[in-house]
């Protein structure tokens, strides 16, 4: 497992992986592909949003978009692992490595109808924090009601 930051040399790989991610979540977001079969992205890399690619055995296996909303405060905006790699807790390991790379205050939000995503983040965050996180229903200005987990990766 290797995590690399997205830059101009690997941006196309990130954009390629974003399409199955957007397609998988279109059942919840109600997005339709455009006339070329492509989905619009909600989160663009740049500014305060950092992109990451997960590689397993040299194959691109996942992506993450993390926003630094203020100094030391991070939000998981997008997170995707290609289905064939969703075993042996690869997604959880990917998330844990991202949390460890950027110590601070974190939050993750999921559309309420995405029950598999909510369950994944509860497991991943719970395992990383020894269940020391806060969960609430948050009225997101873009998505409406979402399930949100908030936690710290700073030393106690």
TrEMBL record:
**Which InterPro entries does the entry mention?**
Acyl_CoA_acyltransferase, GNAT_dom
**Protein's name in the database:** N-acetyltransferase domain-containing protein
Q: Which residues form the N-acetyltransferase domain?
A: 1-149
A GO molecular function annotation here is: acyltransferase activity, transferring groups other than amino-acyl groups
């Amino acid at each position: 497992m290797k995590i690399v930051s997205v830059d101009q040399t690997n941006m196309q790989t990130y954009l390629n992986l974003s399409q199955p991610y957007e397609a998988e979540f279109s059942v919840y977001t109600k997005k339709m592909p455009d006339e070329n079969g492509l989905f619009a992205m909600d989160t663009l890399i740049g500014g305060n949003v950092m992109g990451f690619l997960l590689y397993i055995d040299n194959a691109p296996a996942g992506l993450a978009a993390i926003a630094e909303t203020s100094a030391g405060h991070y939000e998981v905006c997008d997170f995707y692992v290609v289905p064939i790699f969703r075993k042996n807790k690869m997604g959880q390991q990917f998330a844990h490595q991202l949390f460890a790379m950027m110590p601070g205050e974190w939050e993750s939000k999921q559309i309420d109808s995405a029950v598999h995503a909510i369950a994944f983040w509860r497991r991943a965050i719970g395992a990383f924090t020894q269940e020391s996180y806060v969960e609430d229903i948050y009225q997101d200005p873009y998505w409406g009601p979402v399930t949100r987990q908030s936690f710290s990766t700073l030393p106690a």
